[in-house]
Every structure is written in C-alpha cells, then in structure tokens.
Design goal:
Blueprint lengths: L9 H6 L2 E6 L2 E6 L9 E7 L6 E6 L14 H10 L13 H14 L5 E5 L9 E6 L5 E6 L3 H6 L5 E2 L2 E2 H6 L9 E6 L14 E6 L2 E6 L11 H18 L3 H11 L1
Parallel strand pairs: 7-10, 10-11
Antiparallel strand pairs: 1-2, 2-3, 3-4, 5-6, 6-7, 8-9, 11-12
Length: 259
Amino acid sequence: MESISYQPSSDLLAQYGLLPTGAVGGLLYRNGEKATKKVPLRTLSLARPPEIHLTLSLYDHTFCQVFRGVVRDEAEFIRVLQQVGWARPESAAAFTTRCLQLLVGKSQVLKGHAPVCENISYLPLSTFEADVLSVSSAGLYWEFEVKISRADFLADKKKGLHWGIPKQKLYEAAAATTTPNYFAYVCPPDLIQAAELPDYAGLYYGSGDQLTEIKRPIRLHNHRHDLATLRDKINRLTAERKFLGCSLLTHKNRQLATS
C-alpha cells in the first residue's frame, strides 16, 4: 500500500479558516465559528498514515454528512474540500484572516519595515500571539490584530490574561516592556467602527488588494525592544514553516497526536 504522509500547511489551513487541534488517532481541524442551530460546527480529521482518511462532518443538530478520501498532496486536499462544499468562494477571499495578513505585511514592507512576520508570540512582549508584527526603520514595533467577525472583535475585550492583566488593560497602561509601540485592528470594510476602539488603537480596512487607514494608532511609548532577539525568532519561525509546514511546537504536537 502506498505510504502517504501529506499534512496541509498552516497557510492552506488559514486560507480555509481551519484551526488545528490535537486528536487521538489523527489530526483534527475545525472552523473558528461557534456552533449554533444556524451555524454548523465543521470538523476535519486526518487519520494516521499510511492511508490518510479525510472526514468532514457538518453538525447542525439534525444531520451529519461524512466524506472519506485519500489525500496525497495539496491539490487533492483542496479537491476534497470542494467536493464536500467547504471551499471558500472567490468573492470571500478578501475576508479571510490570511488575506488580510498578507495585505498588512505587504503594506509594512513597502513602508520599509523589517522584519515583518505573521502569527508570532514574542517575549518580552505580551504572550498574546500577534496576527502581524513589524518593525519600522526607527526600531518601533507595530502589532496588527485581524478580525473577520463581529463576535471575534467583541470578545477581544475579554481576551485572556497576561500576568493577571487583561490585554486591553495592559495596552491602555502602555507598559513599555510588554507592549508594542503601536497597535491597530484590521478588518473588512465597516466591520468595526473607529468610535468602538480604545483610544490607543488604530483601524485599517482591507478589501481586494487595498489596505485603507481609517484611524492611525497612537504611539503607546518610545521604548525600543530587543530587535536582535526578535530577528532570531523570526528566522527560526520562517525555517520551521518552510520545511515543516508549521512551527516546531505545532509539529511536535502533531507527532504526539498521531503517535
């Protein structure tokens, strides 16, 4: 029997809005939406090699649809998603987290920022993962939080604790050693209004290939963080994502889930 070890990359998962979680006997992915009677909970599971079985279940409290197929590469993975109706329509592409991250990254690179990295948790900054983090030529850190739903934005006010302090409180206090110099939200047009934001936060609308500044963020402080340490982490993350398809931590968790 043919040995198959294909696993979708983190970029591909982001494109289809899939979140990886550990599962016994395989890898489990789910969409980021909260299941309700009107919104189905979608789960995608990959059984262990040599034969990877793809199972998509749509739960809306009345039915369960299951599909199984062998996936050898990215093209087959996408084909199966299309067969089960999970492929995102082209018109929705601009509203995925990944597409908005790319818009922000491109904008910051054009402004001369370096390094620029997505999905990074960097100490001594807060332990919250930044959707996009960039550093200006002046050595100032910019953090961008991408939102593609109202529910996700409203939940941000209650977002976890960092050393016992809610994220927004930490940023409002402008703690120099644990916050970026600038913070901004990025979302599809009109999803968030500037009046809803904390005073310090900026706002950008992303649509198609355009990123529009609605409200410029206020500088929280003038502290310069350790750029050498950040560059070292980004270099390691870049290598891990290129050759493993994900971060080393995620790779190890996947191995544990399938062992």
